[in-house]
Amino acid sequence: MNLKENNASLEGTRIIISGGGIGGVSAALALAQKGAAVELFEKSAEFREVGAGLQIGPHGWRMLEQWGVLDIAVNAGYLPKAIQFRDAVSGDDLLRLSFDEDFERHYGGRYLVIHRSDLLSILVDAARDAGAQLLNNVKVVDAATEHEGDCVKVKAEIKDQHGLRSVEAEVLLAFDGIHSTLRKKFISDQPVPSGYVAYRGTSSLAEDKGMSELEDVLGYIGPDCHFIQYPLRCGELLNQVGVFRSKNYFDAIDNGAVPEEWGTNKELSVAYKHCHQSVQSRVDYLWKDRWWKMSDREPLDNWKKGRIILLGDAAHPPLQYLASGAVMAMEDAACIADYAADYVAENGEVNWDHILDEVQAERIPRCTRIQTTGRFWGDLWHESGRARAIRNELFRAVSGTGWYKYADWLWRYDHRERAYVKNPDLGKMPEELKDIVGS
Amino acid sequence: MNLKENNASLEGTRIIISGGGIGGVSAALALAQKGAAVELFEKSAEFREVGAGLQIGPHGWRMLEQWGVLDIAVNAGYLPKAIQFRDAVSGDDLLRLSFDEDFERHYGGRYLVIHRSDLLSILVDAARDAGAQLLNNVKVVDAATEHEGDCVKVKAEIKDQHGLRSVEAEVLLAFDGIHSTLRKKFISDQPVPSGYVAYRGTSSLAEDKGMSELEDVLGYIGPDCHFIQYPLRCGELLNQVGVFRSKNYFDAIDNGAVPEEWGTNKELSVAYKHCHQSVQSRVDYLWKDRWWKMSDREPLDNWKKGRIILLGDAAHPPLQYLASGAVMAMEDAACIADYAADYVAENGEVNWDHILDEVQAERIPRCTRIQTTGRFWGDLWHESGRARAIRNELFRAVSGTGWYKYADWLWRYDHRERAYVKNPDLGKMPEELKDIVGS
């Protein structure tokens, strides 16, 4: 398989990528397809993703298509028939959005769910086929932009089993995740804990009497918790995610303490007691040996320092509620490759200062909007009392294609339109939602 | 004008009505049209209604039509083009429901607004034309059902300028209002204060530069307050109602005290400070010499004691949020007249025990539903914070005919279908709204 494009316009351009998650590898693929000489450094011994299922909305679907890996991803994943929301307490149906022909026509893509490690493998193989160098056991520990006369380059310190050494490139993409090393060069901030914890689990779907008919992405939403279920791997596996508010976390915070341990199995054992039996009965299927404390970071208004740019979770880790964290990183990857190639096509040469400026002009407002909306979206899922009942009625009122109006900004996005470059205000929360976020 | 029906099936039946408000006079009209000998006693010196504008939804429209007073009521009132809700803080449009041909087809009637005293005058004239005796300065102070052999009658003590005397009839309808004297024979309950107070006012519309284009019923809803505006008297008058939460009331309650005075002008002067200028600027137009402390009562599960039945506000005073208090009393009036006539048509004689049982079997669940939903509806208008923003989005989502599904139970009601007799559960709040009411 040779995925390199005929129009290999970045031929000869040297690019370093720090981090071999979905975002970094996607960038390696997208840029190698444009002809760039890509070196990707991943500190782990192998390319793997923690977690289980991953949702790829139509905004991600179109990039998989563009990169030529859609068919193989679809074959490894699962195409749900719809997304459904139910009230976690009553079990009542609230909303169902069908991923049918109308959806595909409207969004230019379908909705795919796939095992994180399967998608990563597919992207790694494709990036290598396109000519990118992907190296394990190498960590980028530092980087700086250097000027030598008219020549600007980025020099990165990398560390592997042989020790430290330097590598040079025209640009460095820091896709090194929410705990990014390179972000520290920009700001000394910390992840913002949401106080919610996620448990995940996969189990055999075929033998699961209660669930074997499941064909949808099913989300139960309720006070202080939610629970997501969908098939994976052609329907062989059931993927489940239980997310709940940690009382231990908030109790400690309220007492002015830094919470020691939170989201433990003990908390899990009571987290769904107020929920419908169809949720409670599924808690046993979650893995108990590992849990994820959900955090994001405050949006950052600059991702670029010389020839270093933060991208993916290093730049804009969101909460998970819009199921778009991985797609955002893929959008970053597609955006930088396309904007660079567009620039070369127009000007006959590469100009990274200009390209990185354009990338962040597009991507910062887009990702800020997803980060802030993600927080709001989580709050909306976890409402209790009167707000919960009104939320339920709203969901019922817009069930079906009535939902499109809330999803269009997210799912119809195409970085090639440069919509946020043209109008950065698109990155702001809509006026009518500000009260929700602000209060 | 002779409004007596040809099918005067209640000929010779003697009926006493206590209270000459819209409900009592409607009952006098409806029963006199069926041929009954109606005596109505009103303690005041004249038939008049306190307050100003009154909204008559299509559920009331059809009764005015049935009683032959629709045209004269429409000529005295105003037919708004639509009902609109706006957010009281931002001033933003939330919802608009047009009273157009589709509305009229769907609900079998239009939406009328009319001055309370104009409607009462029209009903008084029509009731007298139909042969009812309507007497002022007479108060029904007590009543009891008496059995003499097979003969059952109700004996009422009435008091006028000459002192006390007794009158007899086959049945007594207690339409004596929220502070009903006769309700005390059933239960020793008290009105339930909502802690909200209403200011009203009418002013000349034509000279009112900011408002002269108004053709709709316009409601601003916001945290702890709302503000209603609509034209009256063929558009000559502007009717305004400002309702707000009295801090004095709730502060006193929180301190375990019985609030002395609440809802004063001083409270009014700050009640809309958080609202949009288009609301704040209208407060000056409200009457300051009088205000109404809004109360309802708990639903009662029996309205009938021998031959005495509580109806109208004496039986089921609602909060004003569904704008149906007067129509509920008109429904009671139409219901008792029609059920009595139906019984005679079927059985050749009147049987008041049976008829009153059927009336309350129909009316109690219907009115209970309006009372409980009215409380919920007020809470929904006055939401703040996140619940307000979700409510706004819900209103936007169902703007237009999407609203029908919430109004059908209220506005498509026809007592002749005996829907609540057949299914008393219709009187319960829908399952999905219980959480709102309960919390």
TrEMBL record, chains A, B:
For this protein, the record's InterPro entries field holds:
FAD-bd, FAD-dep_Monooxygenase_BioMet, FAD/NAD-bd_sf
**Native organism taxonomy:** Bacteria, Bacillati, Actinomycetota, Actinomycetes, Mycobacteriales
Q: Which residues form the FAD-binding domain?
A: 13-369
Protein name (record)? 3-hydroxybenzoate 6-hydroxylase
Q: Which UniProt keywords apply?
A: FAD, Flavoprotein, Monooxygenase, Oxidoreductase
Asked if the record carries the keyword Oxidoreductase, the reply is yes
PANTHER family per record: GERANYLGERANYL DIPHOSPHATE REDUCTASE, MONOOXYGENASE
Annotated GO MF terms: FAD binding; monooxygenase activity
The record lists the organism as Corynebacterium poyangense
The record's listing under SUPFAM superfamilies reads: FAD-linked reductases, C-terminal domain (SSF54373), FAD/NAD(P)-binding domain (SSF51905)
> Which cofactors go with this protein?
FAD
Gene3D superfamilies, alphabetically? FAD/NAD(P)-binding domain
> Out of the domains of life, which is the source?
Bacteria
